[in-house]
Fold each of these.
Amino acid sequence: GLRSRAAFKLLQLDEKFGLLKRGQRIVDLGAAPGGWTQVAVDKSKSDQGGTGQVVGLDLLEMEPVPGATTFQMDFTTDEAPARLKSLLNGPADIVMSDMAANTTGHTQTDHLRIMGLAEMAYQFATEVLAPGGHFICKLFQGGAERELLARMKQDFASVRHAKPAASRQDSSETYLVAMGFRGATPPQA
Ligand code: SAM
C-alpha cells in the first residue's frame, strides 16, 4: 500500500499533467515517509529492471523504498545537492519537492523559509534537469514569488499552479508544475 496520503496528490498531479513515465530519472526532495517515492518507482521502473532511477532525501529518517535510493540529510546544506548529483547516473527527467519546513507560527518567517526551500529546489532543478524535464514543487499562500515565477516561465515551456483534490481544502498548500525545461542557461557574463 501507499505510505502517505500525500502519494495521492502526486498521482492526481500526474493524472492531470501526464508527468511520470517509464525509464525516467526522478529526484524526490522531502521524501519521507515515502509515498511520492513509491509512486515514482512504480511509474518509472519496469518490472524487467533496466532504466529508471529514483533518488530522494529527507531531514527525517525513512524506511527504504525498494527500487529507490534515499538518504537522510537537510537539503539546505551544501553537501545535500552534491550527494544527490553524485547518486544520479545521468540528467534528471523530474525534480519534485514536497518539502515543507516546520512552521514557527510567525507568518512572515514561515513564508520566507518556505520560499527559501522552493528557490533552492528550483536552483537544483535547473542544474540537474535534462531538456524537456519537469519541476514539481509544493508552495503555500497562493503561489510563487513573482520573481521566481518569471524565471520559471523563461526556463520552462509551461508553468501551472494546481491544487490536487487530495490536498486539504482549508490548507493554503498548492503545487507548481513546470514542464518542458528549455535547458541550462549559461551564467551571465
Ligand atoms: N512526499 C512525501 C510523501 O509522499 O510521503 C511527504 C513529504 S512531507 C509533506 C514534507 C517533508 O519535507 C517532511 O518529511 C520534512 O522532513 C521534509 N523537509 C522539510 N525541510 C526539509 C529540508 N530542509 N531538507 C530535507 N527535507 C525536508
Amino acid sequence: MSKVLVIGAGGVGSVAVHKMAMNPDIFTDIHLASRTVSKCEAIAASVKERTGIAIATYAIDADDVEATSKLIGEIGPELVVNLALPYQDLAIMDACLATGTNYLDTANYEPRDVAKFEYSWQWDYHDRFKQAGLTALLGSGFDPGVTSVFAMWLKKHKLKTIRLLDILDCNGGDHGQAFATNFNPEINIREVTAPARHWENGEFVETPAMGKKQSFEFEGVGAKNMYMMYHEELESLAKFLPEMERARFWMTFGDAYIQHLTVLQNVGMTRIDPVIYNGQEIIPLQFLKAVLPEPASLGPTTKGKTNIGDIATGEALDGSGEKTFYIKNICDHEDAYEETGNQAVSYTTGVPAMVGAAMLVTGKWKGANGEGGVFNMEQFDPDPFLAMLGEQGLPWTVEELTEPLPF
Ligand code: NDP
C-alpha cells in the first residue's frame, strides 16, 4: 500500500519500475519522472504490456529543487527512488526534505567538476532527515548495495569479525560493440580512471588506476582479468566494520575495453574539466557519452553472465578458528532482458533498488526506535533484504573456501 516516485528513466530506472509493477501488493501506485518524458513513456508502455499495470509519467529536471519539490508535492509519494545520476542526489534530497518524503538512491553524490566518490555530503544530511522523521537509504544497488548486505550477512551468520574482505565484480557479458559501458558512460569512466584506493590497517591506501591486475576463475563466466579499483562501498564498509584489516574492490575488464579507454584517456577525451570548442565550453567526457551507445540500448545484444560477490575471511562464529566464505550472485544477461527488456548490469542494480524501496515502505527497515536519518545498507538487518532479493530474480549462494585469497 504505497505510492512511490522514481526519478530517472535509464536502464536502472526501467528495471526498478518493471519489478515494482511485478509486486503490486507492495507498490500500489507507481510514478516515473525523468528529464526526457518520452523515455518514461516507453518504459510505461513496456510495463503495461508485461504486467498490465499503468504508471504515470512526468518530465522533470531534477537539478531544479523547486520544480522537483513541486512535482513531489503534487504526487504525494511516500518515497522518492532516485535513479537519475549521482549529480542529482543532493538536489533530490533537498526536495525530499522540503516535501517531507523519504529518499533512496544507488550511487553517492558526485560534484560535476571533480570525481570524488565519497559519502560526506550525504552523511551531512543525517540530522536534517532525523529531525524531519524521514529516512534516506543510500546506495541500494548491487555495488554499492548488495555487496555491503552480503558482508553484513556473513558477519551475522558466519563470522564473528571480518579481517579481510574482497568484493569481486565480474561482467562476463559481451554486447558485440567495439566499446561501450554497461552503465552510464560518464560515471563508469570516471570510476575506472580514478586512482585505486583500498582499506588497509585503518587507512585508505592510494595506488595508480588499473595498476593491480589479477586473474580469477569466475563461476558461470570463466577466467577473467580483474583490476583493483576504488568503489564507494569501501568507505561505508570501513565505517561499519571497523575491525577490517584490509578491504579491496576488484572489477573485470577485457583487453579491448582497456585498450580503448587508454587511447581515450591519452587523447584527453575522458577529461571532466571544460575545454573551449568553436567558442563554446564543452566537457570532453560528456561529449564522449553523447557518441557512445546508451547502456539501455545494449540489452538486445548482450549475452553472458555477471558474477558479483564478497570473499570474507575472519574468526568463525562457531569458534572453529579462521574461516573464509564466498557469497555471490550470478545473473544472466539474456534472462534479465527477457524479463524486463534490460541487460544484467541494469537488472542487478534495479532489482536491489526495488527491494530497498520495499524494505522502507513495508517498515522492515527503519532506524533504531523508528527514528529517521541518513542510512547506509550496512546499518540494517540483512536477512529480509536478501530473502526478498533471492525471490525477486537475484538468487545468491554462500560457500566455504579452503583458504583466504592467495593474492
Ligand atoms: P542512465 O544514464 O541510463 O540513466 C540515467 C537517467 O537519469 C536518464 O534517463 C536521464 O535522463 C536521467 N537524468 C539525468 N539527469 C537528470 C536530471 N537532471 N533530471 C532528471 N533526470 C535526469 O544511467 P543508469 O540507469 O545506468 O544508472 C542510473 C543510476 O544508477 C546512476 O546514478 C548510476 O551511477 C547508478 N548505478 C548504480 C549501480 C550500483 O550497483 N549501485 C550500478 C549501475 C548504475 P535523460 O536520458 O533524459 O538524460
